[in-house]
Fold:
Amino acid sequence: MNTACPHCAADLRLRKPVRRSDPGGTRRILACPACGGALALHPHPAEKFFFPGVLLALLGLNIYSGFSGIKISPTGAVLMLALIFAAAFAVRRLLVPKDWRRYVADRSSKD
Ligand SMILES: [Zn+2]
Structure:
């Protein structure tokens, strides 16, 4: 994944973007720690689809186990969480292209 700043090309993998108020002070935006340029997160469609999907699946599973009377053991729950983390890792590693930009310039701000 390409974590370079769209303004100054500083690598933001280690130097995380900072949060600051926008000039109007109405909302919090991400800013590059090197040049101060406004940034927006740029999630890949696979990520956008995956994470709400996982939440829905967990919710569905909870409702299902509530209705069916099937008890999920603590071990089973931990295993399930481990699977979800592994899947999230795999989605990022396999589906998101290496040159996918993690951050783009925030177009809603004036600079
Ligand atoms: Zn920058």
In short: Helices lie at 45-68, 74-95. The two ends are 25 Å apart (CA to CA). The chain has a mean pLDDT of 86. The first strand starts at residue 18 and ends at 21.
